[in-house]
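# nightly structure sweep
# worker-07 picked up a monomer target from the shared queue
# config: single-sequence mode, recycle default, output format = structure tokens
# input follows
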Amino acid sequence: MRHIFTVLAALTLAGLAGSRIPQEKPQEAPAADSKVPSEYASKINPVKPTPAGLEEARRVFGYDCEMCHGKDGSGKGDLAGVMKLDMHDWRSPATLEKYSDGELFYIITKGKGKMVPEGDRVKEEVRWQLVNYVRSLAKKGGAEAAKPKEEAPKPAEEAPKPSAEAAKPPAALR
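# output follows
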């Protein structure tokens, strides 16, 4: 019986020692080349901005981009602060005029620096709509204009006013 416990203890120790394989560090996504190829830079956005398209792009921006670029495109998202990233302010027309639609599309598609690429995670049309959405951020009220318009709350219907007859107590109580 004593030998069984000794063998079991030895097997347990051997198993634990074998499981202590050094863990590899997680690999960072390779930084995309910051130079945009000329065939992309000269591309013209084939997707015209529409309210529905901007709304779809705003939703994608909300869950894929906002954490770094900020809800309003200011570049002051929560993750940008934690990672100490120096982000562009997409609300500034001067910032966006430096980029063609094709360059923005390329950066959205392929990523840049630590930015994760959208690649094929979203359809090409949506990536072009993201270009439209980013451009809308630089327009006066662009971030607000791209949001869906909420209907104004309707006033509550007034309760019917009691008539003079209804205000009198029932005859049985008089």
